[in-house]
Structure to design on (194 residues):
């Protein structure tokens, strides 16, 4: 998790940051599941499941945004030249 | 039987933790984005089922096991999808993967060694 955070802070492009965020989220789900069992919290598995869903939806949404932005930029430059 | 379950779950948990650390090292030290995607995606897709199976072997039989199974199936379904979406968005954005020998792609005669 620490290494994913370091890559998120010094990643050269925005894609690196998004990849590090996704990897960090998956590891957080695993940490919640294992740590909740070890410390005997209540209803920690619901939290982990919800976190996994939000992580996936957020990654897909940001990636769709990047893709659309790139395509619209390409179309604009193609129309201008 | 109990001892067997304990040892199996310990082996699963240790292998999963090792894979997580390997993914972190790959995420830090790989040279370009596509190899980083490979390192993160592959290791996490294997590490999450290992860790959650090790957790399931340690729990008593209740509804919680079904929830862990749901998390496992969800991560197995979504993690490769997210990785593929990232790689596709990066290719659309204009980045190209690093190739060791640029002439090898064009099939020039000097690339054969």
């Amino acid at each position: 998790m620490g290494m994913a955070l370091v890559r998120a802070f010094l990643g050269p492009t925005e894609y690196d940051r998004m990849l590090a965020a996704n990897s960090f989220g998956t590891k957080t789900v695993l940490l919640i599941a294992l740590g909740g069992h070890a410390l005997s919290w209540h209803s920690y598995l619901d939290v982990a499941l919800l976190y996994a869903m939000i992580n996936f939806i957020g990654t897909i949404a940001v990636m769709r945004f990047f893709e659309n932005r790139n395509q619209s930029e390409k179309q604009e430059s193609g129309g201008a030249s | 039987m109990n001892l067997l379950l304990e040892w199996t779950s310990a082996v699963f948990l240790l292998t999963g933790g090792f894979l997580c650390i390997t993914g972190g090292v790959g995420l830090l030290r790989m040279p370009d984005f596509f190899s980083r995607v490979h390192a993160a995606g592959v290791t996490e897709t294997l590490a999450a089922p290992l860790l959650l199976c090790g957790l399931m072997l340690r729990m008593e039989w209740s509804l919680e096991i079904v929830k862990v199974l749901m998390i496992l199936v969800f991560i197995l379904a979504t993690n490769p999808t997210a990785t593929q979406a990232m790689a596709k968005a990066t290719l659309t954005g204009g980045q190209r993967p690093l190739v060791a020998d640029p002439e090898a792609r064009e099939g020039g005669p000097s690339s054969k060694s």
Observations:
- Chain A has a mean pLDDT of 76.
- The interface with chain B takes residues 1-4, 6-7, 13, 15-16, 18-20, 22-23, 26-27, 29-30, 33-34, 37, 45-46, 48-49, 52-53, 56, 59-60, 63-64, 66-67, 70-71 of chain A (CB under 8 Å).
- Chain A has one domain: 2-80.
- Helices of chain A lie at 2-10, 14-39, 44-80.
